[in-house]
Amino acid sequence: MTGRIIAGLAALAALAALVAVPWWVPGDYYISIASQILIYAVFALGVDVLIGYAGLVSLGHAGLFGLASYAVAVALAGGSAQFGAILLALAVTLAGTAIFAALSLRATGIGFIMITLAMGQIMWGLAYRWFDLTNGDNGVNVAARPMPFGFDLEVASNFYFATLVVFLLALLIAWVFVHSPFGASLKGTRDQPRRMTALGYHVWMIRFCACLFSGLLTAIAGILFVYYTKFISPQSLALTSSAEVVLMVISGGSGTLLGPVVGAALVVIVKNVASAYIERWNMLLGAIFVAIVLFMPEGLVPGSARLGRFILRQLRGAPAKAAKP
Amino acid sequence: MSLWGILAINSVAFGGLLFLLSAGFSLIFGLMRIPNLTHGSMFMLGGYIGASLNLAYHLPFWLAALGAAATVAVFGGLIERLLLRRLAGSVLAQVLVTLGISFIVADFCLLAWGGDPVSVATPPGLTGGVRAFGLYFTTYRFAIILVACVVAALLWALLDRTRLGAMIRAGVDDPEMARVVGIRVSRLFTTVFCLGAALAGFGGIMGAPVLTVYPGLDGDMLPLALVIVILGGAGSLLGSLVGSFLIGILYNFGQAMFPELAYFVLFLPMVLVLVLRPQGLFGRYAP
Lengths: 325, 287
What we know:
Chain A has 325 residues and is mainly alpha-helical. Chain A has helices spanning 2-19, 21-24, 28-54, 61-77, 82-104, 109-129, 131-134, 156-179, 181-191, 193-198, 203-229, 239-252, 258-277, 281-295, 300-316, 319-322, and strands at 140-141, 231-232. Chain B is mainly α. Chain B has one domain (2-215). A two-stranded antiparallel sheet of chain B has the order 1-2. In chain B, a hairpin with a 2-residue loop joins strand 1 and strand 2 (135-138). The model of chain B has no long low-confidence stretch (mean pLDDT 86).
């Protein structure tokens, strides 16, 4: 019971801290970093639905993320209204995800990783080569951010609030999704696909729907991203980007909702802080990747939760139980 | 007409390079059940090391190629022994570690060799070309095809005619049973990993006079290896041979005919194979 109260208070404190970000961080640059963290947190949540709850690791999600971004940018360049561009991006990305999922779900496990990786590279290749549509390596610019209800998103703190609202909504639907009966059956397909089949569940369809949900969150993140940078280039679709988001999920802790958010914050902060001092960000990314997989395979959030429980037990004086690792 | 003839030779030569890349990838995948995501990096690393040995240390091309292959083989062996071995049984962790290493290698190459493409001169004796049927074919492309055929024959002999090959085939078919009958499968892992790395590194330097070596070469080659193995089937030498030439042809013709959709053309046969025959054309099991 006390645990639940502590968790509730912590969540409220975190929410208050998030809302107050424009007042306690120094300057617009850091407010933008906070927006960037929230955008990547939504993306990581989308990927975590697959990694943590469906047991399917995708190394091609940057392709879907980029698809949403390009859809907005290209539609706006073609003279579409903001709202229309966003709807189009959602529709195009969901359709793209459906194809992506239909092909990659021919396999699970390693096969799934390989097919998603190949398809992510193909999306990158299309963005890079399809010059008429994507302007190749030069990328596509977005002239202006939308102005919902006359709220000017060009101001850094306003954009942050809009991102925060979208992030909280995404977190809420992810929570509902994971805790729904469907979420439970998804975890069932992760742990015991054959028994689930024997129980009469359509394992493939459950996985397919999870992919679509993951694609929805990814599309939302991609749309926020293109408005954030006001620019999209093939670089955002590269394998590095897919790997970065997998790193966020794994480092934070897959199979939790807090993990991807913590992981996104970690990676974005390390990337921005490190890139101010060193040029070799990719080498650092690779090294962190290897270190986390070797030494903390479960991720930061489950790791520190276990540490916290261990300390609590120590404080209450239960040495017999604490002896267990 | 002349364009098609030259394109056909280029396709087959590129297929030969792809075979050097994908044969090891396929064997590693078949035996260890992991896609080695450093394979593109090994191709690139082989190209860079060979180029340095050739240009900076003035070794003859073929000696430089062997040196590059040996260095990359040692590198591959170290990865297998020091990292993958520690993660035995956890396939996902192994894949993620190879991905992490591929980033480190890519950044290291950028640091060591810079961002400009490194070009290697065609080895002496193979410069120039042959005039046939009113067309002009560069000799070096024929050399690549010849080398790929020799390597394919040697690999076939190794796998089909030697004791080591029989052990590898046993390991590919059923690793647990192979262990039970006393084959030291973990030693095979290291052997095959070194062999695959050496072939990829050799492919990198063989390709250098044609493709040059540039940052991002790893990311260009890795998806091709993936597609070939999905097409041909994991662990099948014949599959990677057929897949390589198929992809070589599609890649070159695709780029010439629909440059904007070249990647898409590559992807079509993979889709067909996945839908109709998930274990690949010559594979025994689906990945």
